[in-house]
Design brief:
19 strands; EGF; EGF-like domain; 3-stranded mixed β-sheet; disulfide bond; 38% strand; elongated; Laminin; Immunoglobulin-like; mainly beta; 2 helices
Length: 269
């Protein structure tokens, strides 16, 4: 975006993250990551916090991103993430790895990690794609005790007390917030601080910061639906009286809708 800046109205360009330079003429070296998740957890209220970091062979974190995965709402969604190399140009003598850490977003418990090595370092943009399965319970194939050195994190952590410090970069903490908090250090109450769901068992999940600070998704218990779990679902009870219960039942549910020929086109396009 071209702007005039300051009292002298000097010309300046606002660059997207993937470019830099006074005219955005240079391309940032980066990893373009596409993720899709599958869920082993049959719990309808499962919510996952995903922390993604680009780390080199000496353990330095070049960039990081976070996202919230809600299986019941985003089971087929693809997540596209850019991870920028901090060095320009990047040091091709080092090895680079993308770490993907999954946490239970409700209690902030660590679940599992995946690693994706970055290859073909001579290319300015490295494309990685993966489909990952979130486990039903903790799966520490990367050691839970050594994933992040505990003393190192505790010494430098600046996150709020009810959040989780997962790493540090440039003396700044990478914080995983609870559903009730937001901001880089989880010091600000989120829109879900006071659960707006009308059904007490429903979960309010705030949108990720890169999407919105003021919107949320409601995850409702069975039997309820709606943007705030305000609707009680229709329930059909089938009882067999004085008859033997069959081994198999075939049921047909038919929904009747009003048809308006002026609005709906009956011919497929």
């Amino acid at each position: 975006i071209f702007i005039y800046y300051g009292i002298n109205e000097s010309e300046q360009c606002l660059c997207p993250p993937s470019y830099y330079g006074d005219r955005c003429q240079y391309q940032n070296q980066r990893v373009s990551l596409t993720l899709r998740f599958r869920n082993e957890n049959i719990d309808k209220l499962a919510i996952f916090g995903i922390v993604i970091t680009l780390v080199d062979s000496i353990g330095f974190i070049h960039s990081h991103e976070q996202l919230t995965y809600i299986p019941i709402h985003a089971c087929n969604n693809k997540f596209n993430i850019y991870l920028l190399n901090r060095d320009r140009p990047k040091d091709v003598t080092k090895k680079y790895t993308v770490y993907i850490d999954a946490y239970d977003k409700i209690n902030l418990a660590y679940l599992t990690s995946w690693t994706l090595p970055v290859t073909f370092l001579f290319m300015p943009v490295n494309h990685l794609r993966a489909q990952l399965i979130t486990p039903e319970r903790q799966d520490c194939h990367i050691s839970c005790d050594t994933r992040y050195p505990e003393q190192h994190i505790k010494h430098k952590c600046t996150c709020s007390r009810d959040s989780l410090c997962v790493a540090t970069v440039n003396n700044r903490s990478i914080c995983l917030c609870s559903l009730a908090k937001r901001s880089p250090r989880c010091l600000i109450s989120s829109i879900c601080h006071k659960n707006p769901c009308m059904n007490d068992d429903g979960l309010c999940v705030p949108h990720d910061a890169q999407v919105s600070f003021f919107d949320f998704i409601s995850v409702c218990q069975d039997g309820f639906s709606g943007s705030r779990c305000e609707n009680k679902d229709v329930r059909i009870d089938i009882l067999f009286s004085d008859v033997s219960t069959p081994q198999a039942i075939l049921l047909h549910f038919i929904t009747i809708q009003n048809y308006d020929a002026t609005v709906l086109n009956p011919i497929p396009i």
